[in-house]
Amino acid sequence: MQTEYLKTLVVLGEVGSFSKAATDLSITQSAVSQRIKYLEDHYGCQLVDRTGKSLSLTDTGKLVVHRAGQILLLEAQLLNDLKMQGKKSRLSICCTPTFGVAFLPQVLESFMARKADNVDLRFMFHSLDRTVKELQENEFDLAVIEHCEEIEVPGFDMVELPNDQLVFISSPSLKLPDAEVELEQLFRHCLIARKPDCTSRRLLDLNLSRHGHKVEAFKAVVVVDDLRLAQETVLGGGGISFISRSLSTRELKSGQLREHFVPGFEQLRRRTVLVKSERRQDPAVADFLECINNAFPMGQAC
């Protein structure tokens, strides 16, 4: 039996219509009907309930679709393995800027020590929205993102990493108290802010809104598109910033920067790896995931 027949049943179950399934599969409606009838004859069971206003899978049909998904995934993995046999594996990776600046150098060094001669790599830094869009367009095999909202990309598995903790940072020269501060104390200073489409900025805007404020409440707002530039500006006493603590770990430990928390502010966002399902068992992908996991202290927000 050709796996295209199983794929036809999977698509039909998703769209609930012979005509829509035919459009999605680029075949005729008659071909869809014939494939479904073949499967029902082959298994000796009714797989599709045709009595209602819209088509639906029978209980047996749902079981076949579940197993069919596993078969189709195995076929995709087999085709990829055969394609890559005797060739260098190619791995296309994207990440949002915080992970790229704070963790990627360490992850890359560890990975290349294992796979330098066997894998061709392509890396890109993108905003969250652009990363998700290009994953949907199959531009990347794997992505690491920081996000506040639920994210789901069809065809990709999700691997959760420790949450990302965001804090306000300042130079000691601004004489802000360590740890807990009131918003009014921060408003007296210039805010070194990210662009509105960055998740750190979205979380800051959400927190301020919950307290009845906007970023305009700060003495001034300077928007920068470079995380290192933002930190360097803060180090020089040019203002405060709300960024991932992982970006400033060394400077906080040495006393070059101070970190601050506002009572009632949400400080955590999620950090997730999205990996293409059909490549989940690829040795290069598995090694890269292991290198990512090794970069994080177990059970801690970073």
Walk me through the structure.
This protein is an alpha/beta fold and 302 residues long. It has three domains: 3-84, Arc Repressor Mutant, subunit A; 89-161 and 270-294, Periplasmic binding protein-like II (D-Maltodextrin-Binding Protein, domain 2), CATH 3.40.190; 164-268, 3-Layer(aba) Sandwich (D-Maltodextrin-Binding Protein, domain 2), CATH 3.40.190.10. It has helices at 3-15, 18-25, 29-43, 59-84, 97-102, 104-115, 128-136, 183-186, 199-210, 227-235, 249-254, 283-294; strands spanning 48-49, 56-57, 89-95, 119-125, 142-147, 156-170, 179-180, 190-193, 220-223, 241-244, 258-261, 268-276.
Question: TL;DR?
Answer:
The chain is of the alpha/beta class and 302 residues long. The chain has helices spanning 3-15, 18-25, 29-43, 59-84, 97-102, 104-115, 128-136, 183-186, 199-210, 227-235, 249-254, 283-294; strands spanning 48-49, 56-57, 89-95, 119-125, 142-147, 156-170, 179-180, 190-193, 220-223, 241-244, 258-261, 268-276.
